[in-house]
Amino acid sequence: MTLAMAHALNAGLRDAMKADDKVLLIGEDIGRLGGVFRVTDGLQKDFGEDRVVTSPLGEAGIVGSAIGLALAGYRPVCEIQFDGFVFPAMNQIVTQLAKYRHRSAGQVSLPVVIRIPVGGGIGAIEHHSESPEAYFVHTPGLRVLCPSTPQDAYDLVGQAIRCDDPVVFLEPKRSYWAKGEVDPGATPVDMERARVVRPGTDLTLVTYGALVPVALKAAGILAEGGRQAEVIDLCSLSPVDDATVVASVRRTGRLVVVHEAAQTGGLGGELAARVQAQAFYELEAPVLRVTGYDTPYPPSRLEGDWLPNVDRILDACDQSFAH
Predict the structure, then answer these.
(1) Taking 90 as the threshold, does the pLDDT of residue 106 lie above it?
(2) Contact 150, 186 (CB under 8 A)
(3) CA-wise closest residue to 143 among 118, 122, 112
(4) Which of 68, 223, 305, 307 has its CA 20 to 30 A from that of 121?
(5) Do the Cβ atoms of 188 and 41 come closer than 8 Å?
(6) What is the pLDDT of residue 308?
(7) What is the DSSP letter of 296?
């Protein structure tokens, strides 16, 4: 069936709640309204107010409550309304949620999923267009996932809920209404593995989330000129599947990493370091990054120039081929 990503997420949440009555949802406006992006639309009506809980406006309380519920045997799924609103909950996420399993020598797990709409491209202002993934990737004890297609969204949200580790689940906002085929009975994607979404031999393009279709478009333009770029969708940002990336770079000799987050301290730098350490002698050119700029998110009229786009990706590829 053809679904938008938001509807695929809704279907994944619904199926998880049907399968396990310990799964419950908590977040701002997620009940009758169905959330700002309508991902939880209809779930409170079907499962009741005890399992789809509309919380007060307080992210620290949402995550803190979820930790307590997980300790009591539940599998809570938190919704943070916008990416820039997650920071009041960072103490709970970083110092409590991420640490409990290690602190208890593996005896206590906290199966909490924190859903966060992320990224720009929807004409919103700062605090509504952030890319905070590096904070979570840098925190041991958290898994970080980011789907790019409706099928991935359906598969990954179900796996995240069943996982005994805490999962930060990043949902690219400008992909919410992109449609694709979803087969609930299909063999699910592996939540720890990257996917090669377009094979190629001349250059490796690595990205995730909303930038996967942008990278694919750039690869299509390169192909018209006789250059075959391999496009890899990371899917899992922590743990990151560097083995798939390194194997690709060993074939192509070139790597361009693309992400919306600012360049400094971003995931692109980590991948560059890992590839340099494992495939140094196969590299034909320096690893390059196409990212958001090291500035606060701009006004909406400027975001088209701030965000990585096809032209910026092609420029980086040309620089790589020039070496």
Answers:
(1) no
(2) no
(3) 112
(4) 223
(5) no
(6) 97
(7) P
CB–CB of 149/180 below 8 Å? yes
What distance in Å separates the CA atoms of residue 47 and residue 93, rounded to the nearest whole number?
27
Close Cβ partners of 67 (under 8 Å, ≥ 6 residues apart):
92, 96, 97, 100, 110, 112
Kindly write down the DSSP assignment for every residue of 148-166, as one continuous string. Answer: -SHHHHHHHHHHHHH-SS-
| CA 277, chain centre distance (Å) | 25
Token pair, residue 107, equals 């005896």
Taking each helix axis from N to C terminus, what angle separates 267-279 and 242-252, rounded to the nearest 10 degrees? 60
In this structure, are residues 119 and 258 in contact, taking their beta carbons and an 8 Å threshold? no
Cα separation of 254 and 147, whole Å?
25
Looking from the CA of 163 toward its CB, the CA atoms found within 13 Å total 24
Calpha distance 60→185 (Å, rounded) = 36
Q: Which two tokens stand for residue 20?
A: 């396990």
For 137-190, what is each residue's pLDDT tens digit? 999 999 999 999 999 999 999 999 999 999 999 999 999 999 999 999 988 888
* CA–CA gap between residue 131 and residue 59 (Å, rounded): 17
Tokens linked to 231: 């496009």
Give the three-class secondary structure for 3. strand
DSSP 3-state of 105:
coil
Active site residues: 128
pLDDT at residue 282, rounded to an integer: 97
Between CA 265 and CA 267 the distance in angstroms is 7
Cβ density class 24-60: b for 16+ within 10 Å, e for less:
bbbbbebbeebbbbbbbbebbeebeeebbbbbeeebe
